[in-house]
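DM from R.C. (forwarded with permission)

"hey, sorry to bug you on a friday — could you get me a structure for this? deadline for the figure draft is monday and I only need the backbone to look sensible"
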Amino acid sequence: MGFESSFNKDLARKLAKASDPEKVLDLELVEFRKRALELNSAREKMAQGYEKVLEGLKLAFPELDLEDKNLIGTPNRMARALLEICSGLGTDEKEIFSTTFPAENYNEVIILKDIDYTSLCSHHFFPFTGKAHVGYLPDTHKGQDSKVVGLSKLAHIVDCHAQRPQLQERMCFGIMESIKRELRPAGVMVVIEGSHGCLTCRSAKKANASMITSALDGKFKEDPKLRAEFLSLIGMHK
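My reply, with the result:
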């Protein structure tokens, strides 16, 4: 179950901050058991639905062999996969930004680019994948309240918003709003590139087409030179 990864991301941090780690661990184990059973019930319900989907596919194409060994257990695998790809719905955004650091005198752009992501189009439930580029400008006028955050948190907030059914436009705006709300920077800008399964695998079938969206606020919206700097640094403006 990859416990080491989960421990380091969540549980270790809570235990390190706790005055009574054993009590915190007892509470976490109770919550873990409850949540695991909830997810398992969801998996069972979803697997039943996927069985109906395969039965419907059999009606459409009678030559489909539902007894094929490669299809045995497929509804269960489909359910587990969907729970995984939508796991951002259960992520607490405030927890991602729970640790920040003073920006001190740093008043230039901070960018994390080429953040790989996988998301799910809410129109067709086809995946879309690509890269996100996230940048913000600390507001040093706020003195001690001026914040920066560890780079991994920018990657985590992308995952938080990516791992749910949605449109790319909403994902892009949501990431920008989260950074704006939690860090209160002088400006924030997000650019997302996406290759969509609903475009590459069906309908128009344009395998090389990609979608680009942007969301910006504060100084990035007000200052064309700052926007140009961001685009240049992520390699989208030469």
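R.C.: lifesaver. Residues 21-60 form the longest helix (40 residues).
me: no worries. The chain has a mean pLDDT of 93.
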